[in-house]
Amino acid sequence: MTLCYALDVDAAHPNDHMLYAAPMSHGAGLYMFAQIRAGGAHLIPASHGFDSEEIIGLAKTRGNLVFFAAPTMVKRLIAVSKAQGYTGEGIRTIIYGGGPMYANDINDALACYGPRFVQIYGQGETPMTISVLGRDLVADQSNPRWQARRASVGIAQGAVTLAVLGADGTAVPPGVTGEICVQGPTVMQGYWKKRAGQ
Predict the structure, then answer these.
(1) Dihedral (C-alpha) 119, 6, 92, 139: value to the nearest 10 degrees?
(2) Alpha-carbon 158 to chain mean position
(3) pTM value?
(4) Helix/strand/coil for 149
(5) Based on the number of CB atoms within 10 Å of its own CB, is 25 exposed (0-12), middle (13-18) or buried (19 or more)?
(6) Confidence band for 198, pLDDT divided at 50, 70 and 90
(7) E-assigned strands of the chain?
(8) What does the pLDDT look like over 74-125, one tens digit per residue?
(9) Are 1 and 132 contacting, i.e. CB atoms less than 8 angstroms apart?
(10) Which of 133, 128, 130 minimizes the C-alpha distance to 182?
(11) 43 pairs with which residues across the strands?
C-alpha cells in the first residue's frame, strides 16, 4: 500500500504535514506509513475530527497539508472556503475516496483550490490500493471525455492487477457491468477463523 502511495497517489516529502481529520482506522491512518518513511510531520487536530475552519487555519499556519477526506468532507470544506474567500493556500494534497464524489462537488473543489485532489478506490480487503485518479487526471479537461474520466475511479494502481469480470469469470468489455477483481500483494489472505472460499 505504501509503495502504491509513492508510485500512484502522491510523493511524500519531509516537509509535509499529514493531517488526521478523518478516522485513523480508515484512509487517514493507513497513509501514515508513507509519511513516516519520508520523515513528514503528523497532525492530529485539536478537535479530533473534521472541522473545516480548523483545517483552513492549520493549512495557513503549517503549510504543506496532506490529508484524506471523504467526498462529503471535501464538499463541506469547499463551502466554508468559498464563504471565506480561501483558495487552498497551504494545502498540498487532498486524497478523497470512501464514497461517490458527485461531479458538481469535484468541479466546485477544483474551481476553488485548483489541482490538489487525488481520488483513490479500495476496499477493506485490499485497502486503498485498487485504483487511482491522479491530480493531473482529476484536473485535466483537454481530453474530449474528461468528464467521464473525472467521474471514474481511475486506473489500476501499480502493485495490483485489476479486471472486471462477468459471472462466468471472463473479462467483460468496456461499459458492461461486472465484478471488480483484484490480484496482488495488497489483497488479504482471508477472514479471521474462516477458510478461503467460505
Answers:
(1) -40
(2) 15
(3) 0.93
(4) helix
(5) exposed
(6) low
(7) 17-19, 41-43, 65-69, 91-96, 117-123, 126-133, 155-156, 161-165, 179-183
(8) 999 999 999 999 999 999 999 999 899 999 999 999 999 999 999 999 988 8
(9) no
(10) 130
(11) 19
